[in-house]
Amino acid sequence: MRLVKTAGSVAAALAMLGGLAAPASARALDVEWQTDAVLKAYGQYLEVDEASGDVFTLLMYAGDGTVLRRLDAATGAVEWAVPVPGMTDFVSDPTTGQVVLSGLRDKRQVVMFVSGGGQVAREVATDIPAAPVAMAVDETTGQVCSLGSKRKAGQSLITWYTSCWTSAGDAVFTDEEVVGDGRSFPSALDIDPRSHRVYAAGTSSARKFNDGRAGLVVLRSFNASGKLTWQARTKVRTPDGRIQMAIDSERRLVHVVDQPGRIESPVSLVTYDRRGKARTVRRFEDIGSISDVAVALTPRGRVLVAAVDVDRAGLRVYSPRGRLLRKAKVRTERDRFEAYHAAVAIDPVREQVHVLGGGGDTPSQVHTFTTRGKRLSRVVVDDRHVIEGDLVVHRATGRVFVTTSLFREDQQRVTALGD
User: Whole-angstrom Cα distance, residue 281 to residue 34?
Assistant: First the structure.
């Protein structure tokens, strides 16, 4: 559950760094601290408070048992923990310092607002019958939005639900729409902090493409009050994929990456202009099977794309208009049959890619590369039997937070890596 950062976010990070105009010098990472919790949970998800650098973790228990924690950026100490039953998605709001969460209770979506100090400020029960699959926040106004989907019994058509609230928890709008004439899968949401447009994206297997050879990337654009300004559909080779998105506010471009839903299928990068026209469509297959994909923008608007599997990664850099500037393929693990999981995060300020790999009988490690494919460091974060993990980057400092969960043991670890 990763919040894709926009060009406006990068600009904020640059201001904090004193106007950095070029990538920072290469640096090796090392473990700063580790925090272990003897907790029985299905997994742990991370978000960073960009203002303070602290990290929020969402622990997923059996049933509706979920706990939100705040960890100190410098030490890993738990500052507070608060039960947030039923919550499955969350985002940190830089305008207020609060955390906004969403989940499903009694078959209806619930939105919770937790202050930076760990108090539940407001809980909103909605009539939305869809579980959230993504959340986003407007980093200038604090408006928060969620994206979900629901299929009616006995039907194959999917209804997309795009909903927004103010930072105080007041409803702004809910859009309910059947998207496409076949199966569809919404998976990404982002907000342009400059125009305040809300973008919802996913894939659709339109009936005329149901031969299995093609599908559609769908991108929907709303203004801040919920009016649908346009909907774009672009043909891709791999239907039923998962979308990642990055918004270039300055150039009014939206870059959408489709992670293929099938083994050994190409990744698609589609760039849309402010009217919804697909400016460029790029397809590539650097490493075959793909476990995770990330996309981010540099301060100059260059598009960084990283696709990873359990033993390798493909790194690409495109110009804002879609010209391939460079690419690299790197190896992370020696034996793909011994590794278990893979995840990736991009540091667009320093133009570095962090890959979490390993798991099972293989120690979980974070591999750091430049976008040219040069290895900067390799750090073991967990040498136990890890079943899954994820990682996020604090843009202002470049600190990397990693979560790992053990197999058949009640152990959840968070590791901080820095230079």
Answer: 42
Model pTM above 0.85:
yes
Q: Where are the alpha helices (DSSP H) in 58-115?
A: none
Residue type for 75, please? T
The answer to whether the CB of 36 falls within 8 A of the CB of 411 is yes
**Distance between CA 101 and CA 113 in Å, rounded?**
7
- Residue 129: name the closest of 157, 159, 92, 99 by CA: 159
Name the helix (H) or strand (E) containing 11: helix 7-16
Instruction: Tell me what percent of the residues of the chain surpass a pLDDT of 90.
Output: 72
The closest alpha carbon to 175, from 202, 210, 142, 145, belongs to 145
pLDDT in tens, 74-125: 999 999 999 999 999 999 999 999 999 999 999 999 999 999 999 999 999 9
Model confidence at 419: pLDDT above 80: yes
155: tokens are 């039907």
End-to-end CA distance of the chain: 25
